[in-house]
């Protein structure tokens, strides 16, 4: 085996094994380690000399799909395995066992490894997230349906069953029965155009199981897999038949309209072309805590949140010009609850008796709907245990921060840190204590960071901090020192008192790297050197790089 590799040119060897991004073990026919590449040290944290002493079998723990027979016969095989990094972190791996033959004789073996840890963690996180989403899905007051790419029903919630009369088991796997057949093609085409954003407030006719039709306001959103591909669509709908009846009744007869409006739970207002309120429904009192007379004869937009006031006023005044309809969401003042989110639909009409134009505005409180949407968004971008930005959100924020730094010629700093002796905490005090340590660790560090700093949990006990604006390296050292100081106090969790600190690696943009990947790599190297120095310290990559050169 050694002879074969000596026959390879240095460039070919370096290209195939030395520079290969996948960890590779080169073994002789007796499974003794002859060589490992740099990717092995990066993945496991052990040096080549460490592996020569330990052997690779002491690290890799095969899973149930391990095929002993193939290995005995000297055949190629692939199996899943687990292993522990030198720092105690659990790794999930895909292992390829490749025999090397010379004249049909086994002369060596290559073990090629793929790190599946992030994929396994993501799948686990998605499973936990799906359980929370299922709870929100089941308890929502709005009707929710999930449709696959073929237009077939995947799931509906109890509110959907109540609104339409169909049970989930009756329609799963079938085209959505609530869509009129003549509209099915149009609906499917419109749904396929929704890829990155969503369509909200779409007013459509839908059919109930008993054959009757209702008018609903529906929001259609794409659902993505972890690669960003659209795999299904969700529809959140609400019956607005009552509100539509109000609009139609107003056109036919103001007297009939008032009778209906005075007895509905939605908020109804009539506004003239000068923005003065002519009428508000009695529901303003029980829903918003304000009596109707407080609005009538006054400007219509006094209770709109200042941040949305300009847009709301502009859209509603545009209706007098376009004579069209519009819908929007904005914050509106409640008498006791402060600012709440409402959904408003505006329609233009002419008062036939006086020939004057007015706007009919129907508002509905959508706090629950907004909270559900924000919760879904937050869960996609934040770590569930600590509430910190997750890997996906951090990558986006870091990419934007580096663009800004390049444009304004500023420096940034990336801090890569983990928890010293975290494996000991999990093994001796239990995973519950470990989880609480992760939360308290993130809380302590958050207290010493600036509002502009970006703090993220990457998984396990690994964290990243981006300092988007720094004056010099000394200011970064001061922040690192404050972080170290915040971790010196003893931890008391679930009756256990113990100490553990952190090792921090620091890379500076642009000196230590001009892009995200380079900065991460160099900050990781600096953290590794901090651990080698005895933990509970930090290392600048520039210092590490200089030491290596010397």
From TrEMBL:
Please give the start and end residues of each transmembrane region.
none
Per UniProt, residues of the PAC domain are 75-128, 200-252
Q: Which residues form the PAS domain?
A: 9-52, 129-202, 253-323
Q: Which domain of life is it from?
A: Bacteria
Q: Which CDD domains match?
A: GGDEF (cd01949), PAS (cd00130)
- Which GO biological process categories is it annotated with? regulation of DNA-templated transcription
Matches recorded under InterPro entries: Biofilm_reg_signaling, GGDEF_dom, Nucleotide_cyclase, PAC, PAS, PAS-assoc_C, PAS-like_dom_sf, PAS_4
Which terms does the record give in the GO molecular function aspect?
A: diguanylate cyclase activity
Q: Transmembrane: present as a keyword of the record?
A: no
Group of enzyme by EC: transferase
Q: What is the recorded name of this protein?
A: Putative diguanylate cyclase YegE
Gene from which this protein is expressed: yegE
């Amino acid at each position: 085996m050694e002879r074969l590799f000596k026959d390879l040119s240095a460039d070919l060897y370096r290209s195939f094994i030395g520079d290969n991004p996948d960890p590779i073990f080169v073994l002789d026919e007796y499974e003794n380690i002859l060589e490992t590449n740099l990717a092995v040290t990066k993945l496991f944290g052990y040096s080549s000399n460490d592996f020569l002493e330990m052997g690779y079998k002491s690290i890799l723990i095969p899973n149930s799909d391990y095929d002993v027979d193939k290995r005995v016969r000297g055949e190629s095989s692939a199996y899943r395995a687990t292993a522990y990094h030198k720092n105690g972190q659990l790794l999930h791996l895909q292992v390829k066992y490749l025999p090397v033959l010379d004249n049909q004789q086994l002369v060596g073996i290559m073990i090629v490894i793929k790190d599946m840890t992030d994929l396994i963690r993501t799948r686990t996180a998605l499973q936990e997230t799906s359980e929370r989403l299922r709870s929100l899905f089941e308890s929502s007051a709005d009707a929710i349906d999930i449709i696959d790419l073929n237009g077939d029903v995947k799931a509906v919630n109890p509110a959907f069953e109540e609104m339409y009369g169909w049970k989930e088991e009756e329609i799963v796997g079938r085209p959505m029965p609530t869509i009129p057949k003549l509209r099915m093609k149009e609906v499917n085409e419109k749904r396929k155009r929704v890829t990155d954003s969503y369509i909200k407030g779409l007013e459509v006719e839908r059919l109930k199981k008993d054959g009757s039709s209702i008018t609903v306001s529906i929001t259609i959103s794409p659902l993505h897999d972890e690669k960003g591909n659209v795999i299904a669509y969700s529809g959140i709908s609400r019956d607005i038949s009552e509100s539509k009846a109000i609009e139609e009744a107003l056109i036919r007869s103001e007297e009939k309209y008032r009778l209906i409006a005075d007895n509905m739970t939605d908020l109804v207002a009539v506004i003239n072309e000068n923005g003065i309120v002519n009428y508000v429904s009695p529901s303003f009192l029980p829903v918003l805590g304000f009596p109707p007379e407080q609005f009538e004869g006054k400007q219509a937009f006094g209770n709109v949140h200042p941040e949305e006031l300009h847009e709301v006023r502009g859209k509603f005044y545009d209706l007098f010009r376009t004579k069209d309809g519009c819908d929007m969401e904005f914050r509106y003042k409640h008498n006791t609850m402060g600012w709440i989110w409402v959904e408003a639909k505006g329609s233009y009409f002419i008062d036939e008796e006086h020939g004057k134009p007015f706007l009919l505005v129907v508002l509905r409180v959508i706090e629950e709907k907004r909270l559900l949407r924000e919760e879904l968004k937050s869960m996609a971008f934040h770590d569930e245990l600590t509430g910190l930005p997750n890997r996906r959100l951090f990558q986006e924020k870091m990419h934007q921060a580096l663009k800004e730094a390049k444009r304004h010629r500023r420096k940034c700093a990336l801090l890569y840190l983990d928890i010293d002796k975290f494996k000991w905490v999990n093994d001796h005090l239990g995973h519950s204590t470990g989880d609480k340590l992760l939360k308290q660790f993130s809380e302590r560090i958050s207290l010493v960071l600036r509002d502009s700093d970006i703090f993220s949990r990457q998984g396990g006990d690994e964290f990243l901090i981006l300092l988007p604006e720094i004056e010099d390296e000394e200011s970064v050292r001061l922040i690192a020192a404050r972080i170290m100081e915040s971790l010196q106090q003893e931890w008391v969790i679930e009756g256990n008192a113990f100490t553990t600190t952190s090792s921090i690696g620091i890379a500076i943009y642009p000196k230590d790297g001009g892009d995200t990947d380079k900065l991460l790599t160099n900050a990781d190297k600096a953290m590794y050197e901090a651990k080698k120095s005895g933990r509970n310290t930090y290392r600048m990559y520039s210092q590490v790089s200089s030491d290596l050169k010397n």
